[in-house]
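Need tokens for this chain, all 208 residues.
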Amino acid sequence: MRTRILFVTEFYLPGGLERTLTDLVTGLDPESFEVHLALKAPADKVERLRRTLPATVTFHVPALFAVQLWQDSLAESGLPGPVRLAARLALRVLRDACLLADTARLWALMGRVRPDALEVVNGGYPGGMVCLAALFAARLRGLGSVGMYVLSHPQPRKAGVPDRLLDRLVAACSDRITSNSKAASLGFSALRGMPTSKLRTVNTGVDP
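Here are the structure tokens for all 208 residues:
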């Protein structure tokens, strides 16, 4: 009987995340794993992945509410400081509301897919809110194996208590947090307070 694994990711630009996701998925033996992929990405990126990944991968593109693009646009907007601050605070509230809505939608998706394991592929940390919502949904579903793979060094805490609570929730919902460098793994412990027992390092390799 094959293990059913659900990958979840959120990305908007081509690069390391897309390549890492492709490597992870194509490296799985289709006779041993049934692979599902849920993602938040522009339509052209979804179609490119459909052409790149094995035909055995089942795609799911749920209607999710992530606000990452709006946050990126705000950072590059050049608006006056007070206006940018007000917009940032409004987006923070909207982001948290979207996080709850995305958790509910991914919880429903997992009820249909019924995966044995979840692996979130996150470009950074905190990174994509869809990725964090997937962790929360998986824990609510009682999945036996919940992991997050992060491609870069985590950001330091910026919001004090809210960030500390977020980190505790992520740690509680994750069985493992995998980084592609020892420095990034150490950063999760030093900057975000993640328990070292859950940290893993798998260095990026080259196909010989």
